[in-house]
Specification:
405 residues, mainly alpha, Growth Hormone, Chain: A, 17 helices
């Protein structure tokens, strides 16, 4: 029987599993200019540390989902955490930018396991009525981790240098490996041998509900990830903010995301997830229009870039957990595989977005805002254009509410 203490420990461990990879995305960002100066790297090389991480993160989620369905959750988590630890130590000791980039690639290969398996474990262990609450909690942790990470990252860089930021991440990986000793296996049943992995992926990629949720979250995620990847250059180099001032500005979007997750939970108590997403994609598009207008009117003002990101994050805080709850409901027999493919497509889109943001970041905030607006338009069109043809929800578009009705 589950006790309150064991459930609290379980949730904290799941949060650690899914948040450590996300913290790694940009914990080092305040020290990125220092890394470039120390290792004599170009701005393209510095941008590659982000885009390479996201590309490898996407690849990891594609690989570890089927492995977790076939071999169990625990072995894959152990392997991923070990690889993450070794790669983080390589980054901390790097003598060239090529080593940092390679280390970031291997970091992400290990890190992606936690992102996929954490969500699959919730699907394994909890009833659908509890999944709304828990997916919102995990999604909030996953999305806020990269937003909050630069502030402590700036403090670590100030006192320990950029190598210290990777050293602290390595300590986190060691603690995670120790905690995994008590993590139980949650996979129910065995891998079904009648359907190949290729057939499973084909089934998912031709499913209208899966595509609708995946494209919506992938493009909606880009409306703030483009800002995440380009903001160090824009705010520190173009607008001459200090690393601490940059991290402070960056963290101002946190209340927006928290408000979005709270609003999503409140609305889902009386409305279907699909109705919540109707509101989220419309709000996202409107907020991105405001961002675009502000950066064109005040291109040299940090406020024109930072303040409109608060309502953008409000919409993303609604959109991400709602899509994550909805997308896995029809796929109980292959939850980790569906979760892995879902994240692969999301992170692949984010990697492309980071690359595009790196191309336009030298031209100021307005081109970045246009890129963000295009992503918002894509999310809106994907959600509306792939809506079920009938008035009845598609099989996966479960109208979950807080009480499970």
């Amino acid at each position: 029987m589950r006790t309150e203490r064991s459930e609290r420990y379980w949730l904290w461990l799941l949060l650690t599993v899914v948040c450590l990879p996300r913290i790694t995305i940009d914990f080092y960002l305040p020290g990125l200019p220092a890394i470039g100066a120390s290792l004599h790297a170009s701005s393209g090389g510095m941008a590659a540390t982000m885009s390479v991480y996201m590309a490898a993160y996407a690849l990891s989620t594609l690989l570890c989902g089927p492995l977790a369905d076939r071999h169990g959750r625990r072995p894959v988590l152990w392997g991923g955490a070990g690889l993450y630890l070794a790669a983080t130590l390589a980054c901390a000791l790097a003598g060239s930018m090529a080593v940092v980039i390679a280390g970031r690639f291997l970091q992400a290969l290990g890190a992606g396991c936690g992102t996929v398996i954490g969500r699959a474990m919730v699907k394994d262990r909890y009833a659908p009525s509890d999944q709304v609450r828990l997916m919102a909690l995990l999604s909030a942790g996953m999305s806020l981790s990269p937003v909050l990470a630069p502030l402590p990252g700036a403090a670590v860089v100030a006192f320990c240098g950029w190598r210290g930021s990777f050293g602290l991440l390595a300590v986190g990986a060691l603690l995670l490996l120790a905690a995994l000793v008590w993590l139980p296996e949650t996979r129910a049943g065995q891998w079904a041998g009648g359907e190949s992995l290729r057939q499973r992926y084909r089934r998912l990629l031709t499913d209208r509900h899966f595509l609708r949720c995946t494209l919506t979250i992938s493009l909606g995620y880009c409306t703030y990830f483009a800002y995440v990847s380009a903001s160090p250059v824009l705010l520190e180099q173009h607008m001459h903010l200090s690393p601490l001032a940059y991290a402070t500005c960056f963290s101002l979007s946190v209340p927006g995301y928290l408000g979005g997750t709270r609003l999503m939970r409140r609305l889902s108590a009386s409305r279907s997830v699909a109705r919540v997403l109707d509101v989220a994609v419309a709000l996202n598009l409107a907020a991105c229009l405001v961002l675009c207008a502000a950066t064109f009117c005040w291109p040299s003002s940090p406020a024109a870039l930072v303040l409109p990101m608060i309502p953008v994050m409000l919409s993303v805080g609604m959109l991400i957990p709602a899509c994550q709850v909805s997308v896995l409901q029809p796929y109980g027999d292959m939850a980790a595989t569906a979760s892995g493919l879902f994240f692969f497509l999301q992170m692949s889109t984010a990697a492309l977005c980071a690359w595009l943001a790196g191309l336009v970041q030298e031209r100021g905030p307005a081109p970045l805002a246009v890129l963000i607006l295009l992503a918002a338009c894509g999310a809106f069109l994907a959600w509306r254009g792939l809506a079920p043809r009938s008035a009845v929800c598609a099989p996966g578009a479960v109208a979950l509410s807080q009480d499970g009705k």
